[in-house]
Model the fold of this input.
Amino acid sequence: MPRQLPPPRLRSTAAVFTVLSALAATSLVGGPSVAEPLMAPPCALKRTDAHHSEGLDTWNTAYPRPARALDAVMIFLSFPDRAPLTSPAVLAADHFPATSTYFRQASYGRFTLRAHPLKRWIRMPKPSTAYAIRRDWSAEHRASYLRDALAAADGRVDFSRYDVVYFVADPDAPGVDSDATKVVNMERPLRADGTDIRRVVTVFEQHPPDRLVLAHETGHVFDLPDLYHRPADGKGDWDTHVGDWDLMGSQFGLAPDLFAWHKWKLGWLEPRQVVCVPAGTPTRLTLEPLAAGPGAPLLRASGAPAFGLGNGTKLAVVRTGADSALAFEARGPVGNDRSACRAGVLVYRVSSGAASGRGPVEVVDAHPRSEACWEDSVYPPLADAPVGLGERFTVPGEDVRVEVEGRTASGAWTVRITAA
Done:
């Protein structure tokens, strides 16, 4: 549990000055990373200098790794130009326990995110319109907002108690733009209460907010990249890379559980749950549905629950280059994926050299001439991407074939993968 807040009289004005000085030099790029070696098999890609690299051989220690319980503070900011219409308790309930529940299920109970929302509004010194809040926020206005928020909150919050910081703006203030919610990375960490603050989640969501939006932004705090494709004019389709299949692509996805690759990166999969497929020899294996685990039983074809899943193989990997790989995982309607459009073995490409938002993961469509769930899917052409039962699929551009041979009594998928 977080340490007890010290008496206000012990809070030093020097600490506040340090915070304000650091904020004056902030930018939106990541700080220098320190690599912590991880145990990784040969098919694990090496981490590169790309922002939020999908490499798995080391962990960037500039980010907290969610392999333990972490504490998050929610600080609610009001403005002189509008009296809040909603209480902090109501806004906190917009995001919790839903965000914690998502991560508990995604991590198979290995990670707990503990929220600590303040009970009162903290007043900002300027009107909301003074900060020019928008999606592509200028560094100057963003620094001004963070400088004022840190100064206003410092007397009420001991930042040394927390691993994650959420600044939640009054959604009804006239200058608040819900499209501006994002994580701010500091070129130089902020210093407050004897601790470094390397990134802050700035929340400008409407009430009620977008589904799972805070879970998506929190994923960035754990070094996960954006997987969507942002059109140059902002008007095209954003979901062409991964469709419904990962939270970091879209918080509205029908199957928004994190890819097995991401669970591997975050430390939620054991090494024995990942199979490296060698070249030249067909490999038969049994893949458990990715979301199946404690508290999330899979339904058998008969409709009866199948318990006991969760500790078997979740991911198969074929290395295709120095910084590229193909990943194979089973997806179906269970846990965070309970609204999945289609079940089967999902195939996707991973590139450790591609930066966040530049296509580090791309789902391979096993049914390129069809689409599914057009009423609900964020991108129907990929909604039926998985290889189904009894199907055989050769990955375009790769001499790699996957055959889905059957299902086990517990609901797992038996698969044969051949890589030349």
Remarks:
- DSSP finds seven helices and 19 strands in the chain.
- The chain has a mean pLDDT of 89.
- The first strand starts at residue 35 and ends at 37.
- Residues 244 and 253 are 4 Å apart (CA to CA).
